């Protein structure tokens, strides 16, 4: 009962209807429609057509879903409850902005609930409620500026995950705290001490000791995407940025960046 009240409060606090989605994300291609009949977690649903949909552009807190030894992320149940409230039993329309299927055959789509008062953009609502983070790929980058804005609203208002230390934005100047998140999907903020090209890679260094300090790495495929977008990664030198991605510990804590939308510039020198 308490969880349902919490979910209802999220819905009441948000405007909900997205009256101009087609204008906001005009690059999207219309996909199939259907009715939501099952929910796996906060970003994966099944339609009555037999199609499984992975909501593109976001990542909700993960649940074990039968994976042995997998620990649920905080607020995973709350994320599932909200998306259930938004979509279960509802007619929905799918829109594609890039690669339309993943390796599991799931549709990678934006989802709109077709309500009497208008359409509700499910990804946007999950982000504004603080029950998902923006999560993107180089082959699926449509509408990210709007999703980042929705995430920012949830974060500023300290909704959902943004009250939980598990999802705290990490300080690039504290590499030990980032090391503790090895294998995790994280947001990290800090000033780039220097941006340097070495061979076929660009390194954004946040400290003087690259084997110990946090580093962002952009490899050749990613550099091509940056070039196509007209962005020179070396321009991040001395900028304060927020970067998102998976943490690994090859030569100290680092993050591999594959496309520009993983980096938000917060301040330039």
Tell me what you see in this structure.
The chain is of the alpha+beta class and 269 residues long. It has 2 domains: 2-149, OB fold (Dihydrolipoamide Acetyltransferase, E2P); 169-267, OB fold (Dihydrolipoamide Acetyltransferase, E2P). The protein is built from 7 helices and 16 strands. It has helices at 2-13, 21-24, 76-87, 122-128, 144-156, 175-179, 220-228, and strands at residues 29-41, 44-47, 52-55, 57-59, 91-96, 107-115, 118-121, 133-135, 170-171, 185-191, 194-198, 201-205, 215-218, 240-248, 254-256, 263-267.
The biggest beta sheet reads: 8 strands, mixed
Identify the CATH architecture of the largest domain: Beta Barrel
The residue fraction in helices comes out at 10-25%
Helical stretch tally: 7
Low-confidence stretches: 1-15
Structural domain count: 2
For the secondary structure, the number of strands is 16
Distance between the termini: 51 Å
| The level-1 CATH class of the largest domain | Mainly Beta
CATH fold topology of the largest domain: OB fold (Dihydrolipoamide Acetyltransferase, E2P)
What integer is the average pLDDT?
Answer: 91
Helix and strand run: HHEEEEHEEEHEHEHEEEEHEEE
Overall, the morphology is globular
Rg over CA atoms = 19 Å
Q: What structural class do you assign from the helix and strand content?
A: alpha+beta
Strand content: 25-35%
């Amino acid at each position: 009962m308490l969880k349902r009240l919490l979910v209802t409060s999220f819905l009441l606090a948000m405007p909900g209807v997205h009256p101009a989605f087609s204008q906001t994300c005009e690059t999207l291609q219309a996909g199939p429609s259907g009715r939501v009949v099952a929910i796996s977690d906060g970003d994966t649903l099944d339609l009555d057509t037999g199609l499984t949909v992975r909501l593109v552009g976001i990542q909700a807190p993960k649940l074990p879903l039968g994976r042995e030894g997998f620990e649920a992320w905080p607020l995973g149940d709350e994320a599932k409850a909200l998306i259930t409230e938004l979509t279960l039993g509802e007619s929905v329309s799918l829109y594609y902005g890039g690669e339309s299927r993943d390796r599991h055959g799931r549709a990678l789509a934006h989802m709109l609930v077709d309500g009497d008062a208008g359409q509700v953009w499910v990804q946007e609502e999950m982000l504004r409620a603080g029950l998902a983070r923006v999560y993107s790929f180089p082959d699926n980058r449509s509408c990210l500026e709007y999703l980042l804005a929705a995430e920012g609203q949830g974060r500023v208002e300290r909704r959902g995950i943004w009250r939980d230390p598990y999802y705290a934005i990490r300080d690039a100047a504290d590499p030990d705290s980032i090391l503790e998140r090895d294998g995790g999907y994280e947001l990290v903020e800090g000033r780039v001490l220097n941006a340097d090209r070495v061979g076929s890679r660009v390194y954004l260094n946040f400290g003087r000791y690259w084997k110990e300090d946090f580093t962002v790495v952009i490899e050749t495929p990613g550099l091509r995407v940056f070039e196509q977008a007209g962005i020179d990664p070396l321009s991040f030198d001395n900028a304060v940025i927020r970067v998102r991605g998976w943490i690994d510990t090859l030569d100290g804590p680092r993050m591999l960046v594959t496309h520009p939308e993983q980096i938000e510039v917060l301040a330039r020198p």
